[in-house]
Amino acid sequence: MTLTQLLIDTAVVGGVVLMTLLAVVPLWLEAAARADDTRTPTTAAAPSTSRSRGHRRPRPAHRIRAV
């Protein structure tokens, strides 16, 4: 293997690694931010009702009745 081939192979592998990181890192950051959003803060006391877990009864729909 010549030096030129080695340099080309190194550049190709480096490009693949770079493109993979550019694709994966934003997904990691989004997942980490989503995990932080769902975590309850340690300083605030979390209420023990079902509303704290996001299980809220839907409001009744206001329907327009045709006369």
Report on this model:
It contains one helix and no strands. It is elongated, with a radius of gyration of 26 Å. It has a domain at 1-37. The chain has 67 residues and is mostly helical. It is 54% helix and 0% strand. The mean pLDDT is 79.
Question: Secondary structure elements and their pairing?
Answer:
Elements: H1 3-38
Task: Spell out the key features of this protein.
67 residues; mainly alpha; 1 helix; 0% strand
Give a nutshell description of this structure.
The protein has 67 residues and is an all-alpha fold.
How is the main sheet built? Answer: none
- Radius of gyration over C-alpha positions, nearest whole angstrom: 26 Å
Number of DSSP helical runs? 1
What general form does the structure show? elongated
Q: Which regions contain 5 or more consecutive residues with pLDDT less than 50?
A: none
Based on secondary structure, the structural category is mainly alpha
User: How much helical structure, as a percent, in the residues?
Assistant: 40-55%
Mean pLDDT: 79
**What string, H for helix and E for strand, traces the elements in order?**
H
Q: What is the count of β-strands? A: 0
Beta-strand portion reads under 5%
The end-to-end span amounts to 85 Å
